[in-house]
Amino acid sequence: MRGIFPWFAFPFLPKAASLSWIDVDIDGEWKQIDSYINDKALYEKALEHLLMSKKTYGYSVAFRDGKSSCEFNFGEKGFVHMGAVVVDHGTWDDLSEYIA
Known about the structure:
The protein is an alpha+beta fold. It has a domain at 36-85.
């Protein structure tokens, strides 16, 4: 979340945050879809800051299996947030059931 929240907010934020995405069936194969940075200039600048920080995720960019991309790709390269996912809570059809 660095680059999104101001520095003084970090002591008040949880160590981890929730992220959800959807899976869609395309020609019989389930694909993960998530929000992503599709502005190439913004992505490249965020990636530059991330690499300078020597971290694997931040500035709304993450590496998954050493890869990151701003291209819409249905998960072949790993969308930009997935490298920061530390726990998978499974698949839920109803968000309210998961939250409960």
